[in-house]
Amino acid sequence: MRRSFAVALTALLVSVAAPLRAQASFTAQVDSVARAVLAQTGVPSASVAVVRHGRLAYAQAYGDAQLEPQIPAKTDMRYSIGSISKQFTASCILLLQQEGKLSLDDKVSTWLPDLTRADEVTLREILSHTSGYQDFWPQDYVPPMMLKSTTAQAIMDRWAKKPLDFDPGTRWQYSNTNYAIAGTIVAKVSGMPFFDFLRQRILEPLGMSSAMDIDKSELPPHAEATGYMRYALGPLHPAPKEGAGWLYAMGELSMTPGDLARWDISLMDESLLQPASYKQLETEVRLKSGVGTGYGLGVSVGMSNGHRVISHSGEVSGFTAMNMVFPDDSAAVVVLTNQDAARAAGAIAQGVSGLLFSTQDAQTAVREAQALKIFEGLQHGQIDRSLFTDDANAYFNDTALHDFQSSLAPLGAPRSFRQVSEGLRGGMLLRVFRATFPDRTLRVWTFQMPDGKLEQYQVAAEG
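RE: above sequence
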């Protein structure tokens, strides 16, 4: 009995230790990605949340939420999420549609007849940026007029009563004006202020208690993240705050990354809207020509390394953000940063999402070593032709070997060389590797035949 108990206990400890080691490894990798991007970009801080298996699995903040006085970033601090707010506005419209109070195919003229060609533009075109209404804020800074307060009506009077940029449904062009219109319609149909409807019907039911409307007031200093901007590569400066009214229904939300993760989990579980509404939210809208837009209703839709992804970036003065949801995989990545006009949030999110679907296994190190050895050989204009098929050997002619050597040799040894994805293509295994150097990153990808030989070995700049 004692021996059986000991064997069982040992087995239990082994089964528990393996996931713990895996989690520790994942945590270290996320930390490495976030810290490296902040170091490279100079962005003050990032707050990250990761959902795995439909649950919040990881939350960590890096850097400084405020520089003077220095205040470290914490995961319970709010950051502005910018245009990620748009999917919440679109969901308000879908809730009203579920109640039979409107339809996505309704014309804007039903509520706002004075807008340009309002009897032609539909709510679906408003939410999918295919309406033709001109964007009132394409700049990555705050123009002087936007430091003063405004109203959604004033925005519509100035930008939604001029000629359309294109005929409705014929082109896709991102436009914040669309969401000033959408928020106004939510208020008219619901009979309450837009943010009150959003809070009562979405934020409170999902327990998103940190969510705050920064269209009315800025984030409290010291307690929350401070937004920053810089001119070119100069020093960081506190970013100016937009005047009240400019963020209405299009970029008004700030919250913790954990609360945005709550929203992401609700998308995976389809726990708030009806299934048909989620399908409309996440379905790519096509132009009248049949061309896809890559956009649904307030969200970008597409594929990332073979996984369906619902995503959106966000930027308001002083902040950028990225939210990536993989509904079919019950996974999501939230990254909030406190500098505008910067790519750190997207870079961190992409890096972490790659870790979510890592193809690392017992043979990964062997494959990486082989791919690196081939790379090093090409840096010297040499290749082991026994590793390749006849087609690949034909590809690596004298010109190819010369060009590989002349372009790759000056780079020296890579700082890192790792496999980032794996999939099937044309009956072969497609593997993608990332080679990192001090001043650039390269993408290396191979096709492996069933017999183990390589049909392809390509190198290109990571773009």
